[in-house]
Amino acid sequence: MKTAPAEVLHEYGPFPGVDAVHGVSYDGQHVWVATGDKLKAMDPSSGQMLRTLDVTANAGTAFDGRYLYQIADGRIDKIDPQTGEVVSSIPAPTKDGNSGLAWAEGSLWVGQHRERKIHQVDPETGAILRTLTSDRFVTGVTWVDGELWHGTWEGEASDLRHVDPATGEVIERIEMPAGMGVSGLESDGADRFYCGGGPSGKVRAVRRKGRGSNETSASRA
To answer: Cβ–Cβ contacts within 10 Å for residue 199, how many?
Structure first.
């Protein structure tokens, strides 16, 4: 298993009126930040919040190319990002304790925090199709280039883990600096992860190892 220290490229926030970051997603232009009672769209080049949707957003966030998906307590809402309308909802795996959320291969992938699990979920019905088990608390979940990654956070220790989607076996780890917890995780599809920072109210961009060293305007903002 490969292990490396995280290279934090940039910190965004804390943001006015945001007490905590509960989830993050990326739509190709904006980083969506779940702040409890709102979803906010951030420009990663400037760090400015550009739009706000008034929806319950107290855990993970995902984007399927057209719609946002947002954990809201015991359900997962499908949201039109243009209007903020909740177009449908499905039950989350549990009534509480749901954490990260990702979209990949036609399914939703839902982290279950203290149960240390990741569930593959049917986005139409909420049925659980597969379950992976971790040995750490699971926070954010993301897919990139066919790789499943999830965040962990216990005490002062947090890391990003690339795991086998069939077995849950850890393939590589990126260790966050002490005190930098991960409350949400999303890839930009290229060389970086966006990590929610929980009660710090921050979002951090972290280098995806082995994917080049050219920083974009987001890391220099």
So the answer is: 12
Q: What percent of the chain has pLDDT over 90?
A: 90
Q: How much is the pTM?
A: 0.92
- Tell me the residue range of the domain where 155 lies: 2-220
Q: For residues 38 and 53, give the distance between their C-alpha atoms in angstroms, rounded to a whole number.
A: 6
CATH number, domain of 26, equals 2.120.10.30
DSSP per position, 150-167: EEEEETTEEEEEEE-TTT
How does pLDDT run across 8-50, given as a tens digit for each residue? 999 999 999 999 999 999 999 999 999 999 999 999 999 999 9
pLDDT, mean of residues 151-177:
95
**Ramachandran assignment for 217, one of left (phi > 0), alpha (psi -120 to 50 degrees), beta (any other):** alpha
Number of domains in the chain: 1
Q: How far apart are CA 151 and CA 4, in angstroms?
A: 14
